[in-house]
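Hi R.,

As promised on Friday, here is the backbone we talked about, encoded as structure tokens. Could you run it through your design pipeline when you get a chance and send me back a sequence?
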């Protein structure tokens, strides 16, 4: 037999001295610290080195820089798919930066951070131990 709890029954009281605002602020500070540490790591350790399948876009960037890029080159099959949008992004960035792969790594890091921060509001519980969970989302 499964029991369904209403929203008010499901909420638990916070420990003494804690508020939902302080828990939300703490979660925000932790998320911001993770983002800052990740960006610092990427900026410090990324190198301008073409690796493995990055070599497949070098002819595209070369053709774009010299004015010989064609739609068929962008639409060419890669493995079992045709990746025109990623090719356009990589060729655009590569043409502007002369294929400095550190910029591509930084853009990938920014995309990851964006998806991470957009998923943070979805985690609305802060769990302490294994039995106590507290809502940290201000709009709940």
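Update: got your reply. Pasting your designed sequence below so it's all in one thread:
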């Amino acid at each position: 037999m499964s029991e369904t709890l209403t929203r008010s029954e499901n909420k638990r009281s916070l420990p003494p001295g804690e508020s939902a605002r302080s828990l939300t602020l703490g979660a925000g500070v932790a998320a911001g610290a993770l983002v800052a540490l990740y960006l610092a790591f990427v900026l410090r350790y990324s190198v301008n080195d073409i690796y493995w399948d990055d070599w497949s876009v070098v002819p595209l960037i070369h053709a774009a820089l010299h004015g010989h890029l064609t739609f068929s080159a962008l639409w060419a099959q890669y493995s079992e798919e045709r990746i025109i949008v990623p090719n356009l992004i990589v060729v655009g960035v590569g043409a502007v930066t002369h294929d400095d792969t550190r910029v591509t790594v930084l853009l990938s890091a920014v995309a990851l951070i964006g998806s991470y921060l957009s998923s943070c509001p979805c985690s609305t519980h802060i769990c302490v131990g294994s039995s106590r969970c507290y809502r940290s989302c201000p709009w709940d």
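One thing I noticed while checking it: The first strand starts at residue 77 and ends at 78.

Thanks again,
M.
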